[in-house]
Design a protein that fits this description.
Blueprint lengths: L3 E4 L6 E7 L4 E7 L3 H17 L7 E5 L4 E5 L6 H7 L4 H16 L5 E3 L5 E3 L5 H8 L1 H10 L2 H20 L7 E3 L8 E4 L2 E4 L6 E3 L2 H4 L1
Helix pairs in contact: 4-6
């Protein structure tokens, strides 16, 4: 289609296109892999955010059979870009972001109906999952930056430390965790903050998104 323009994506299996005419623009999200998570769950999480007065993309149209959904377009202004441009007023931006995070962490809804007429329950961020994800450091970084002799010892020591640290976590796993809460996923929409890339949300430790 002539009115579709491919735009920058993220680390997921999704592709993004801007659909634009003289009066309106929207975003087409295409996902052929991990389709349920990247289309259905993504919209379900957005619905929960919207229900709790957090600005997230509204669903305009869905065609699960053809692997896409059409959602609201928040434009191109990420907080990452804005912070790079405006060095003097960064404190006010971060104050707004922390205010948004407090609002997100007050969300109590864990379950919602999806456009597939199935209930989706946001999973809990168990310590086991946290440890598994931390240990990916050994697969993604250590293997490419350590000698063969050093990999085994470092990985063993690292995993031991991570397990020990996780066992000391005292905060309850009871707040909404966006899980990708950083300035590239926060959009400046007029004077508001729009939140994108929310499909991995869980209920977990309140320190995660802050960090």
């Amino acid at each position: 289609m002539k009115n579709l323009k491919k735009i920058k994506g993220d680390a997921s299996f999704r592709e993004f296109f801007r659909k634009q005419n003289k009066l309106h623009s929207s975003i087409i999200v295409l996902a052929k892999k991990e389709k349920f998570k990247n289309l259905v769950v993504y919209d379900a999480i957005n619905k929960i955010l919207i229900k709790n007065k957090v600005l997230a993309p509204k669903l305009y149209y869905k065609n699960y059979h053809k692997n896409y959904i059409e959602i609201e377009d928040f434009g191109n202004k990420t907080f990452h870009n804005e912070l790079n441009k405006k060095r003097k007023n960064q404190f006010s931006y971060f104050k707004k972001i922390i205010g948004l995070l407090i609002k997100i962490q007050s969300i109590k809804n864990r379950q919602i109906n999806t456009f597939k007429n199935r209930k989706y329950l946001i999973p809990k961020y168990k310590k086991k999952i946290l440890i598994q994800e931390a240990n990916l450091f050994c697969d993604w970084y250590v293997k490419n930056n350590f000698s063969k002799n050093g990999i085994k010892k470092f990985s063993k020591d690292f995993k031991k430390v991570m397990k020990n640290l996780a066992s000391k976590l005292m905060l309850k796993e009871n707040v909404f965790v966006h899980r990708d809460f950083h300035v590239s996923n926060l959009m400046l929409v007029k004077k508001n903050i729009g939140v994108i890339d929310s499909q991995d949300a869980v209920f977990g430790n309140r320190a995660y998104d802050l960090a």
